[in-house]
Write a structure and sequence with these properties.
By secondary structure, the protein is mostly helical. The chain is built from three helices and no strands. It starts with 12 loop residues before the first helix and ends in a 10-residue tail after the last helix.
């Protein structure tokens, strides 16, 4: 994607190993598995709480240019 951002997450060794294990079992890279999990969580949230409207997202800073 053109507007992809990097995002750092601190994980314990055990959690990272579990992520790698599951990602491999699901035939995904660890990065793609995290993206998959995030999309699943967002879909769940929106089923429970309703769709997040684009105008609600516009003012959330995601980079230095937004601050």
């Amino acid at each position: 994607m053109k507007n992809d951002r990097e995002f750092t997450v601190k994980l314990s060794d055990e959690l990272l190993r579990r992520l790698y294990y599951i990602a491999e079992a699901e035939h995904r890279t660890p990065n793609n598995h995290i993206i998959y999990l995030l999309r699943q969580n967002i879909a769940y949230y929106e089923r429970v709480h309703g769709k997040i409207r684009p105008e609600e997202l516009r003012d959330i800073p995601v980079g230095p240019e937004d601050e």
